[in-house]
Structure formats: structure tokens, C-alpha cells
């Protein structure tokens, strides 16, 4: 298939889609089903019900294979730590979600079966993916994980709080300056917090820095953490907490609850939370495009995950293959999209226009769909020390939000510590 941009590819996909530790196996001919584990990051407020619905449906229709879903807390960083421990103990899950930012590390450090090898006798399955979407699952040209979920960040906002503050909810903020100005108005007039940026990993860090014209890792492989765009973006984030005092320095789970209880006006987070927020909100919930830095182009990292196979036993690998085919089928991708807000990944032949079906069912997805043309790959610190570098950067940013350091000193310290961890040229 001809290569295309992330936006065009995902829109093409959407347009054609139709309406306990360790896994166990039974020798061929055994009467007991093969039982496998599925690691995922989907809490009850982040797609968990959709995971359980799909796993239950699979188990009811596949008597020879049974899947046990295992929720991993602390998002992808927590999943990676737990996966590393499970592999070290010799009890890896058969299938696990892996974020796009952790794919290189997982493929280079964890024993696994590449998707390209697993499906070598079924080329039709892989050919149903647009080439550049399939590229999201490649490492050094080989498909190691199969793309499953695609998202980007949006502004969720409480239109009732906007009205209470005398603001027009039909005109949400378009820039970060407007987020700060409107956030202060809301705080002063209603007592509610103005805004919050989801903060558990470096996805939002990249979105801010790249939208301001910078990079965490420059194209030449050097760190861009102390370049002016990066420092300015992270300092602005810290200033919203410590100077403007419109943003609480709390976990994203606490911020989500504050938003749902009417104590936070703007919650800037992944569109994958849409289904859960819409279900729980008791106010006029609306969405808007991710803010820009003035007239600079918006750049939103394509969040989400691939599915990777870590099963060692051939029977478990075959079961994992069946489960992945099930999850990536048109009907089940539609269930996944409507149950989360994620955009589907697979190009399946025939079927109805699911783009319109999704937008009719969840019109609040529109900003995320519009932003696909501005999506960029979600990157992480490269090399075998990726997880360590990621934590150093996360700790540096959190120190700015806590008011312990300014962005310049925190990012300089992070750069000094991460640089020796980078791969040698």
C-alpha cells in the first residue's frame, strides 16, 4: 500500500471499518483449554469495561482458549515494570499492550515473538493495515507489535462552569495563553480549578514541547531538553500551578475526579477517556482542540499501543494469535473505539463507514479526528536505558510542578543525567 501520513491513514482506516502469574497450556489433544493472560492499562475509568466485554465475548466463543485480563496500574510505565518482573520470573503474559513510546525498548530487551513471524503464514492479516500505521509497530523494519489503539490529547471542559464564570462555552480556549486567562477567570469567579494537564508520563511533555517548536530528542539524536522551546513549555506548565494557581499539583486520577465533581473546569487528556467521562459527567461535557502556542503549529503525539506476544509455549503463541485476530476484527475494533475513544487501527475490506458511525455515537470525538493531520510519533529516550531516562525526565518535570526547581535548572540536570545513558554513535 502506498505510504501516507498518520492522519490520512487513520481516517482511511476509520472510513472502511465495519458497522494468574503466567499463562498455561494443555498438550495437543488435551481436554482443558489453553489459558493465557492479557496485560493492559485500562482501569475502570479508562476503557476497563470495554476490555472485560471483549475478553468475555472471546471466552464465550473460543472454548479451546480462555483469556484472563490483568490490569496494570500506573499506565505504561507501571506495565513495563510489571512485565519486566514477570519475564524475569519466567511467567510472562501471552499478550500485552505496549505503548508506542516503549516499543523499541520492549523489542530490544524482552524475549518475545515478533508479529511478523507469528503471522508469516497469514499475510492477509497484516495487509489489512495501512503501511504507515503498520510502521508504528515496526522496529528496524520488522513488525514486532501490531498497532491496536491510536489517540491524541484534547481539552475536555465543563460548559456549565464556563457559563458560571461569564465565559462563552461555545468559544473554548484555542491557545495556552487563553487557557491561562480563562482558567484564572474561572478560578476567581467560581472557586473551581481552571485547568489540568494529564501528567503520569512524558506524553504530555512531548506534546507541549513539540507544539512550542522543540524536541525532547532532536533529529540528530541529541537531547533538546535545554533548548528554549522545551524550557519555555515546561516553565509555563509549572507557572500554571505555582504562579497562576489555576492548576492543582495532583495525580491525574485525582484531577479526573475533581473534573467529574465540578471542581475542575478543563481537563486536558487523551481522547481515550471520552467514553468513561461522558458516562460519568453530570454536567454539559464538551471537547475542544489541543491548545497551541500562539500561531505555532499544533503537534500532538499519537498515543496508544501495539499488542506484543511474550508467550514461550507454541500452544500459548497460537492462542495469542487467535486473541489478537479477535481484537483486531472490525466489529471488535468498533466496540473498542466506542468504549474508549481510541481511533481504530485496521483497514478491513468492505463494511460501512465507521467514521460517521463513531462521530454520530460520540460527536465529542470530532477534535481528535480533526487533529490526526497534526499527529506526530510518540517518542521516548532511545536505547537500552530508555526506562531510566524516561523516569529522570518525568522526575525533573514533576519537580517543576512541585515548585522545587525552575524548568531551566530541572531540565539541565535531567539532560546531564540522561546524556551518558544515550546510545553511542
Descriptive report:
The structure is a single chain. With about 425 residues, the chain is α/β, with parallel strands linked by helices. It has two domains: about 220 residues, Periplasmic binding protein-like II (D-Maltodextrin-Binding Protein, domain 2, 3-Layer(aba) Sandwich), CATH 3.40.190; about 190 residues, Periplasmic binding protein-like II (D-Maltodextrin-Binding Protein, domain 2, 3-Layer(aba) Sandwich), CATH 3.40.190. Helices cover about 45% and strands about 15% of the residues. The strands form three sheets. Strands 1, 2, 3, 6, 11 and 12 form a six-stranded mixed sheet that branches. A hairpin with a 2-residue loop joins strand 4 and strand 5. Helix 2 packs antiparallel against helix 15, helix 10 packs across helix 11 and helix 18 runs antiparallel to helix 19.
Condensed summary:
The protein is α/β, with parallel strands linked by helices and 425 residues long. It has helices at residues 6-16, 48-61, 75-88, 103-109, 115-118, 123-127, 131-135, 159-164, 176-190, 203-211, 228-242, 252-260, 274-280, 314-327, 330-340, 354-361, 366-370, 386-401, 407-418; strands spanning 34-40, 65-71, 95-99, 138-139, 142-143, 146-151, 153-158, 193-197, 264-270, 285-288, 300-309, 375-377. The protein has 2 domains: 6-151 and 302-376, D-Maltodextrin-Binding Protein, domain 2, CATH 3.40.190; 153-300 and 378-421, D-Maltodextrin-Binding Protein, domain 2.
Amino acid at each position: 500500500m502506498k505510504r501516507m501520513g498518520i492522519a490520512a491513514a487513520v481516517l482511511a482506516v476509520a472510513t472502511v471499518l465495519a458497522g494468574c502469574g503466567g499463562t498455561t497450556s494443555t498438550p495437543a489433544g488435551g481436554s482443558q483449554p489453553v489459558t493465557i493472560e492479557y496485560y493492559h492499562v485500562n482501569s475502570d475509568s479508562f476503557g476497563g469495561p470495554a476490555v472485560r466485554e471483549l475478553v468475555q465475548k472471546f471466552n464465550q466463543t473460543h472454548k479451546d482458549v480462555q483469556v484472563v485480563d490483568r490490569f496494570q496500574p500506573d499506565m505504561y510505565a507501571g506495565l513495563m515494570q510489571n512485565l519486566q518482573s514477570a519475564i524475569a520470573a519466567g511467567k510472562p503474559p501471552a499478550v500485552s499492550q505496549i505503548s508506542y513510546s516503549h516499543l523499541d525498548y520492549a523489542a530490544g530487551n524482552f524475549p518475545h515473538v515478533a508479529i511478523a513471524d507469528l503471522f508469516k503464514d497469514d499475510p492477509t492479516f497484516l495487509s489489512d493495515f495501512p503501511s504507515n500505521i503498520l510502521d508504528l509497530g515496526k522496529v528496524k523494519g520488522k513488525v514486532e507489535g501490531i498497532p491496536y489503539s491510536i489517540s491524541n490529547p484534547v481539552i475536555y471542559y465543563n460548559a456549565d462552569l464556563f457559563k458560571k464564570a461569564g465565559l462563552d462555552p461555545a468559544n473554548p480556549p484555542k491557545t495556552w495563553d487563553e487557557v491561562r486567562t480563562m482558567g484564572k477567570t474561572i478560578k476567581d469567579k467560581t472557586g473551581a480549578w481552571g485547568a489540568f494537564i494529564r501528567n503520569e508520563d512524558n506524553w504530555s511533555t512531548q506534546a507541549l514541547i513539540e507544539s512550542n517548536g522543540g524536541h525532547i530528542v532532536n533529529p540528530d539524536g541529541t537531547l533538546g531538553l535545554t533548548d528554549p522551546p522545551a524550557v519555555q513549555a515546561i516553565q509555563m506548565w509549572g507557572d500554571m500551578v505555582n504562579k497562576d494557581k489555576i492548576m492543582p499539583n495532583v495525580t491525574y486520577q485525582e484531577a479526573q475526579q475533581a473534573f467529574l465533581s465540578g471542581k475542575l473546569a478543563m481537563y486536558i487528556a487523551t481522547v481515550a477517556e471520552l467514553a468513561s467521562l461522558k458516562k460519568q459527567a453530570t454536567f454539559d461535557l464538551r471537547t475542544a482542540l489541543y491548545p497551541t502556542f500562539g500561531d505555532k503549529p499544533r503537534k500532538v503525539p499519537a498515543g496508544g499501543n501495539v499488542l506484543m506476544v511474550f508467550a514461550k509455549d507454541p500452544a500459548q503463541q497460537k492462542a495469542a494469535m487467535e486473541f489478537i485476530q479477535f481484537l483486531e476484527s472490525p466489529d471488535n475494533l468498533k466496540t473498542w473505539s466506542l468504549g474508549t475513544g481510541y481511533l481504530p487501527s485496521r483497514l478491513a475490506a468492505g463494511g460501512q463507514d465507521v467514521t460517521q458511525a463513531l462521530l454520530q455515537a460520540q460527536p465529542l470525538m470530532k477534535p481528535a479526528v480533526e487533529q490526526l493531520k497534526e499527529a506526530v510519533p510518540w517518542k521516548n529516550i532511545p536505547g537500552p536505558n530508555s526506562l531510566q531516562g524516561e523516569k529522570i525526565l518525568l522526575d525533573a518535570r514533576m519537580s517543576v510542578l512541585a515548585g522545587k526547581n525552575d524548568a531551566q535548572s530541572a531540565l539541565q540536570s535531567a539532560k546531564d543525567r540522561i546524556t551518558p545513558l544515550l546510545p553511542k554513535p
